[in-house]
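pinned: reference chain
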Amino acid sequence: MRNATALIIEDDADIAKVNAEYLEGLGFRAVIADTLDQARFFIEDPVDIILLDVLLPDGDGFSFCEEIRGRVAAPILFLTCKDDNISVLQGFMKGGDDYLTKPYDINVLGARVKALLKRADITSGGVIETPPLRVDILAGTVTLDGESILMTPKEIQILSYLMLNIGKKVSVQALKERLGMGNDPGAVRTLAVHIANIRKKLTADATSCFSISGAKDGSYIFSRVKY
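pinned: its structure tokens
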């Protein structure tokens, strides 16, 4: 299995080098981009986690996170000196998965990275499996009982998150944060459409053993209905 790839988007060369060397020591393949333009080029290839600075020469990390969140499923960890509550909240609302303020202990960085990868199940190469359902986040593919199911990047993001929380309630707010929808007034309706499409695709075969149900509080539950 290939080493997980960490994309480090950081314009401070010293910080980028230290982070890259540390992650490489943990077995990662580290790629450094010192501008958002470079980062756009690197994310054309699969990456497993993104370490994203907020203040960059050609833009801000918050806007970049929002820009790529709909098509990049990799966890995003903000690394920044902006430690006020408004900035932290903005980072999560734009689709970030975690937030670490500078200066930080390099071992804390490593622990955060490992936790994010474990949460997203990237330790298995970006593959989430609840047999016979299999989602390859990095390849953007979904298979059910070996048969391919065509899904959009947003549908894959939603399905993978539901699979990681199988049998548990997943709130609309959690899904909005996952997709970087922020306070979009149409987000609830948009999510409902995506969920309906996923449900339809998963149950096209009468033998399907999975369901997505809606709870009274507006949350969703992904569950196995047959064994």
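why pinned: The first helix runs from residue 13 to 25. Residues 177 and 208 are 29 Å apart (CA to CA).
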